[in-house]
Amino acid sequence: MRIRVMSQLQRSLSIELPSLVPLQLPSRMETHLWFIRPDEVKSTSLLKHYSQLLSPTEKEKVLQMRGDELKKNALLARTLVRTTIARYQTNNEVDPKALMFKKNMYGKPEVDWQNYTNCNNPPLHFNISHTDSLIACGVTVHVPVGIDVEDKERKIKHDILAFAERFYSADEVKFLSTLPDPEVQRKEFIKLWTLKEAYVKALGKGFSAAPFNTFTIQSKVGTKGEYNLCKMTEMTASSLEETNKCDGEWKFSLLELDDSHYAAICIEDDEASGGAIFS
């Protein structure tokens, strides 16, 4: 599995829209992951320019945020989505400000491609996630994508195992209980949470459609940062049988961004054979 991450710094999220460098579309079963650190964007004039890219509804939502930092992060999140998608559409003269969005019946945001009759590219799928210190956007073609980012140093206020028993599957709780080091246990808890969030977001049906305790995320043997999805109805007493019955229709990858965050990516595998490539 190849992983290549694109960081949209202040110099690439530039004021002049023509400076957006056109990019080749992701190939089938490939994900492009973009991220930005809000603390790297310090120019007030740049932020004012970004606000001009947003729709009236988006601007209103940004202004409703409490506190300057929340407003700034919300603005950058919408800007990241718009400028990222526009990079793949510049040959069709779709600029960030012109992009229109809709939500599916479960509330997952999508680009409303019906408004672009001159766009011959296959429709892009995207998903966004953010913390106070990092914003990320995943982009795919043909297949849904879900991403989640979490701060590696995030503190868990509750007892980790007790918290896991409320939200995780029995197998995940058992796995966490075998970790004697509290710090390792905390990190593995966060990794599982990040992967589960990515899967639910890729499904695009809301959390009620896939409660965290109804499926298990397992590390894929012989790989680094790859995972399997196992449905509770498929679990058996044998760990070997569990692995064999894991759902291969979903591909996962877990990576670190800027040595400070975990990022999980989940995409649907519309080709039964072959592994997903994350770029």
TrEMBL record:
GO MF annotations in UniProt: holo-[acyl-carrier-protein] synthase activity; magnesium ion binding
Ribonucleoprotein keyword on record: no
Recorded superkingdom: Eukaryota
Residue span(s) of domain 4'-phosphopantetheinyl transferase N-terminal: 47-136
Coiled-coil stretches noted in the UniProt entry, renumbered to this chain: none
Residue ranges of domain 4'-phosphopantetheinyl transferase in the record: 144-248
Name of the protein in its database record: holo-[acyl-carrier-protein] synthase
This enzyme's EC code(s): 2.7.8.7
Class in the EC hierarchy, top level: transferase
GO cellular component: mitochondrion
Pfam families named in the record: AASDHPPT_N, ACPS
Keyword terms: Transferase
